[in-house]
Specification:
Elements: E1 3-7, H1 10-19, H2 29-37, E2 41-49, E3 52-62, E4 65-69, H3 79-96, E5 100-104, E6 108-112, E7 118-121, H4 125-133, E8 137-138, E9 152-157, H5 164-169, H6 173-182, E10 186-190, H7 196-209, H8 217-227, E11 231-238, E12 244-253, E13 256-264, H9 273-285, E14 292-297, H10 306-312, E15 317-321, E16 325-328, H11 331-349
Parallel strand pairs: 4-5, 13-14
Antiparallel strand pairs: 1-2, 2-3, 3-4, 5-16, 6-7, 6-15, 8-16, 9-14, 9-15, 10-11, 11-12, 12-13
Helix pairs in contact: 2-8
């Protein structure tokens, strides 16, 4: 079979990954470089046949726990190749002293409409058996929001949509009406690096309402530096006095544009700034090689899901992926770490940490 497993060079992985049908920025070199500046470790591992890469992925982690978001990129129908990769990955991880590894293949279990009705589905029992045979434990068909690699996402296919009228005709009727009512009242601006604090304030406000800890300005600056021309920080403003009312981060990678983070000032929610941001970005990519919009992750529930309600207004489907597989390589150390981490979480809850107010507008 002439296969070899090894660490891969960043440039050769970037070429392989971007050309792969399942290319996604979570497996991209740019994100790996950004995470390195945040203190994470990473390894690019893969299989070559001769000098040609035929499969692999980026392992990301810290504190000896590593995960592969939406990877590996491999021919999942080639069961021998998959087993070879898993066995070699386990050996590699043990040699490095990892405590635990997790893999989150970007493999579909189902495609659903926004009400949860199954439009298409796949039996992945053979894949689960492959992982089980290699000693991995399946994390299950979870419905919660997964921070390492979401199991549920809302996406829209732009193939065949050539004009703005066609695009907006694919939106929900109520959304089309809201956009007509506010057309001309909102304008879009792309931020420079020195202006990122504007977006931080908008996202912070939304995060706080949702009970999510905000990110520091340096996080957004690292993203700006790492992704270069492939990332856009866009703010919607009022047309009269240019007040920022909503903002979003869009990442272009492969044939996909991802709506990564967004937020808004609720005082101006009647102007539908967040909707105009999504419309603006989709309009920009009509007629290009970008044929897919990833509105990113949601919870796998179809009632009282306000995030899904908003995203589904643009037309599209819910993609359900198979989920995560984990293998604990050093059980004693892993369980002792979990006890310590639980104690730290309890202690943190007992400390009143004031909300960060800097960067607010």
């Amino acid at each position: 079979m002439n296969w070899t497993f090894a660490e891969l060079d960043g440039k050769e992985w970037d070429t392989f990954e971007r050309a792969h049908p399942d290319s996604q920025f979570l497996q991209g070199v740019q994100r790996m470089n950004k995470r390195a500046k945040m203190g994470y470790q990473s390894y690019i591992v893969g299989i070559k046949q001769g000098k040609t890469i035929i499969g692999g992925g980026i392992l990301l982690g810290r504190n000896d726990e590593f995960w592969m978001p939406y990877g590996p990129l491999i021919d999942w129908d080639n069961l021998e190749l998959v087993r070879y990769f898993l066995d070699q990955l386990i050996d590699f991880s043990r040699e490095k002293g990892f405590v635990k590894i997790e893999l989150f293949p970007r493999i579909l279990l189902s495609i659903r409409d926004n009400k949860g009705a199954v439009l298409d589905s796949w039996d992945r029992s053979d894949l689960k058996q492959q992982f089980s045979a290699a000693g991995f434990t399946y994390q299950g068909e979870t419905t919660n929001y997964q921070m390492k690699a979401g199991r549920w996402a809302f996406v829209k296919d732009l193939s065949g949509i050539e004009t703005v009228d066609q695009l907006r005709a694919s939106y929900r009727k109520t959304l089309r009406a809201r956009l007509r009512q506010t057309e001309g009242h909102v304008e879009m601006t792309t931020l420079k690096r020195s202006e990122l604090s504007i977006l931080v304030g908008l996202i912070d406000d939304s995060d706080e309402r949702n009970g999510v800890s905000g990110r520091e300005l340096t996080y957004y600056q690292l993203m700006y530096d790492a992704f270069g021309d492939d990332i856009q920080f866009v703010v919607a403003r009022t047309s009269d006095d240019h007040t920022p009312i909503a903002g979003a981060i869009f990442i272009h990678h492969g044939h996909e544009i991802s709506s990564y983070l967004s937020g808004m000032d609720r005082r101006y929610r009647h102007l539908n700034g967040r909707a105009w941001l999504q419309d603006y970005m989709m309009t920009k990519y009509l007629g290009t090689a970008t044929t897919r919009v990833n509105f990113f992750w949601i919870e796998g529930r179809f009632q009282n899901n306000h995030l899904l309600e908003f995203k589904s207004g643009f037309g599209g489907v819910v993609e359900e992926y198979v989920g995560g597989f984990e293998k604990v390589l050093r059980p004693a150390r892993y369980h002792s770490k979990k006890i310590v981490q639980k104690g730290k979480r309890v202690a943190k809850k007992l400390i009143n940490i004031p909300r960060r107010l800097r960067h607010r507008n």
